[in-house]
Amino acid sequence: MKAKKIIAMIMALAAAGCMAGCGETKEAETVETKVAEESTEVLNLWTRGNETDATGPYLLEAVKKYEEKTGIKVNVQFIAFDDAETKWNSAFASGTAPDIIDMGIVHIAGRVNLQHIIPLDEYYESWGNKDQLIPAMKDLGTYNGKLYAIAHFPDPQIFVYRKDMFKEAGLDESRAPESWEELLEYAQKLTIKDENGEVTRAGMAVPTVNARFLASILIHQNGAAFADEDKNLPTFDTPEAVETIEFLDNLHDYSTVFENGNWSENPFLKDNAAMAYVPNGILKDYLKEKPDMREKIGMAACVPGKETAAWCGVWFHGITSQSKNPEQAFDLLSYLTSEEVLSNRVESAGLPSAFRYNENEYVGLDPEVNQAVMDAIACGYGNPKVSWAPIYEKVLDQLTEEVFYDVKTPEEALKDAQESLMSEIE
Mean pLDDT over all residues of the chain? Predict the structure, then answer.
């Protein structure tokens, strides 16, 4: 009996040992797995818009491939455009900002001054793709002499004109006007007015409301700007600014009344204007709906004044000051703007690139339109990179309306705008 009891005890102890051993192994494996999961590199990228926007699907596809190539997890969060500033501010205040944010030109100065984004010059200098970035796109991502943002989606407006209307007016339909003087002359010849002197067909589509985009194009074409970015001050009271607004007012005499951005009412797209600046995406949608109009429309990057300049909105990626691994974040930005990724976007979505290595491919898709687009990108400007950019837009819209409706002369409107901005800034 004793022997049986001893054997039973030994077996019980062995079983207990086995259970303890198995439990330790299982626990060890759980801890090891948890540590491995926690050590996986994670990058957070916030982008404006939603998954169905023009760039959304291609961003998600590129991120997935990056994860497969590197083993690094990338969390992408889409934010409504109107909510972006509020969400950024809340995240930076709470220390929960992502590694990368998508932003526009108008955001750069403010985010730099708040120390929310970091300079990228150190990474840029050793970047294999740096020579492929179109110089104008690099300039637009630069503030106070430092590069803070990498362009990934330029969206310019281009100059368009009706060849059939040119021919009817006895103008050379094979080319756009080549100077401000010629633009004004053509606008006058192409305008049709009724017996009361009201414009029934615009020679040049000049928006009465929200004319800041056209004003911004013209000031750069006149070799100047409405702001000194280095000093962070407005320059609305210069002779060049007065000359620009006077010219814009003269052009407006040959236009009908409409609001910029309300493209369904734009007279050019309603076949009721001979010349206009139109976003390239809007133009392409128009030509898809009305393919018979393609042969009637000519295009160019712009009509230059003293200089060549076009309006170009740009989407940028910037790295935040709260990123724990900015080097890895720049590696992701490098991949997202690589030839491989952008070529896929060009081919699948027909969207332009901020890099030279996609230029021939993009132009080849639609040579006439896309060459004008690339030319506009190469001379593209946007809003000034100043801390008071949101106020700038409101003031510029207001002063142009005051001039168009003869409330103030260009000199008066610009002088008042300068004083108003200076009081706001101070």
Answer: 91
- Please report where in the chains the tokens 């001979």 appear, as a residue: 274
Convert the pLDDT of each residue in 338-391 to its tens digit.
999 999 999 999 999 999 999 999 999 999 999 999 999 999 999 999 999 889
Cα 94 to chain centroid distance, Å, stands at 27
CB 99, CB 117: distance < 8 Å = no
| Three-state SS at 144 | coil
Distance separating alpha carbons of residues 332 and 329, to the nearest angstrom:
5
CA angle 36, 37, 40 (to 5 degrees): 85
C-alpha to C-alpha distance for 204 and 180, rounded to whole angstroms? 12
pLDDT digits (tens, 9 = 90+) for 17-49: 444 444 444 443 443 333 334 446 999 999 999
Which pLDDT does position 40 carry in this prediction?
64
CB-side neighbour CA atoms (13 Å) of 344 = 14
DSSP string, 45-103: EEEES-TTSSSHHHHHHHHHHHHHHH--EEEEEEE-GGGHHHHHHHHHHHT---SEEEE
Would you say 315 and 107 are in contact if contact means Cβ atoms under 8 Å apart?
no
Collapse the DSSP code of 180 into the 3-class scheme (helix H, G, I; strand E, B; otherwise coil) and give the result.
helix
CA 287 to centroid of chain Cα atoms:
23
pTM, whole model, 2 decimals? 0.88
The yes-or-no verdict on residue 170 having pLDDT over 50 is yes
Q: What tokens does 64 get? A: 């997935």
Give the position of tokens 């506009």. Answer: 376
How crowded is residue 8: how many other Cβ atoms within 10 Å of its Cβ? Answer: 10
- Counting Cα atoms < 13 Å in the Cβ hemisphere of 190 gives 32
In the structure encoding, which two tokens stand for residue 393, read together?
């837009």
Structure tokens at 302: 């712009």
* Structural element, H or E, at residue 11: helix 2-39
